[in-house]
Amino acid sequence: MTSTHPRKLLLTFSLCLLSLILALQSGDLKPLVRIDWFDVLGEGSSFLVVLAWLLLVLFSRPAGPVTNGLYVGSLLLVLSYWLNLLDEFIAYPDSERLLSWLESIPAPIGMLILTIGLIGWHREQRLINSQLTSRELHLRAHNLLDPLTRLYRRNYLLQAIRREQALQAEHQQPFCLWLLELDELKTLMQQQGLAASEQHLQQLAELLLLQFRPGDLVCRLSSHSFVVLMPQTKIRTADVLTELAVRHLNSSLKLQAWRSALSCQTQHSHPSAEEVLTALQQQLQHQQQTELWSLH
Q1: Binning pLDDT at 50, 70 and 90, where does residue 172 land?
Q2: Fewer CB atoms inside 10 Å of the end CB: C or N, the chain?
Q3: Residue 219 CB neighbours (<10 A)
Q4: Torsions phi, psi of 262, nearest 5?
Q5: Using only C-alpha atoms, what is the Rg of the chain?
Q6: Measured between alpha carbons, how far is 187 from 291 in angstroms, rounded to an integer?
Q7: Computed from CA positions of residues 284, 285, 290, 291, in that sequence, does the dihedral angle turn out positive or negative?
């Protein structure tokens, strides 16, 4: 399992190391007889717990403002508990006040920031759960769900397209489909392994759910492609939604190799659901060929 935040990990351990150096320069090591090992056990356990919180954040969440809040709050707690632990091994002169402030001030600030981050995380989960619930159109069969991303598969998407086609006669409004394909997934699997590529897909699925509206349907079409169905949506609205989604995906996951295609289905066209998907995939292939020709 790898972290998508290597710089945050480096910053965390660098600050802990700097704190250790500062503590050693400011005081003297206590003799063993003066060390209270019960306090060491209690403060050491507290330090390890908050460090575990920080690592869980960095190894389980994609980049974003909520993750940053959780990280900063956890980092302040880690530094505070780390200095408290060092205090059990190092004696400081009475004139030394800096380390005393560093022990006490970061903890309440970290708790406040961490609480704000947890509220944001809670809101994210509520939004994801709401979107997943809204996608329960009329089928709940377990085999329609992709076990890795918990998104619906191709068969459910086809039935959802048929449903939207049936509703078009009543609403007289188009619906749009957006296809996203990842070219870098195979390379990622070769370089970092299966676990890293699966984590990448899970984070991508979660971000897609967050970026689109509750009434939109996000499905995993194949191992490296996703489709978003946007009911009763005009092409201009779909353009804005997909552009914002791409911008967020690029900043959060730093996608390097991907391509996408957007189509709008109107009541004037009457293809089958399978033909709609096939046409969308062909559109993507045509775009790719056009780009290759332009390069040559």
Answers
A1: confident
A2: C
A3: 26
A4: -125, 130
A5: 26
A6: 21
A7: positive
**Which single residue is written with the structure tokens 């033909």?**
275
What is the four-CA torsion angle of 219, 225, 230, 234, rounded to 10 degrees? -170
pLDDT at site 138: 45
What are 216's two structure tokens? Answer: 């939109």
> Taking 50 as the threshold, does the pLDDT of residue 190 lie above it?
yes
On average, the pLDDT of the chain sits at 82
Which pTM was predicted?
A: 0.56
Q: Using DSSP bridges, classify how beta strands 217-222 and 258-265 pair: parallel, antiparallel or unpaired.
A: unpaired
Nearest 5 degrees, angle CA 193-CA 281-CA 185?
10
| CA dist., res. 215 & res. 31, Å (int) | 66
Provide the pLDDT for residue 137. 46
> Residue 145 pairs with which residues in a beta bridge?
152
Surface-to-core class of residue 236, CB atoms within 10 Å of its CB (0-12 exposed, 13-18 middle, 19+ buried)? exposed
Q: What's the pLDDT at 230? A: 92
Burial 167-204 (b: 16+ CB within 10 A, else e): ebeeeeebbbbbbbbbebbeebbeeeeeebbbbbbbbb
SS3 296: coil
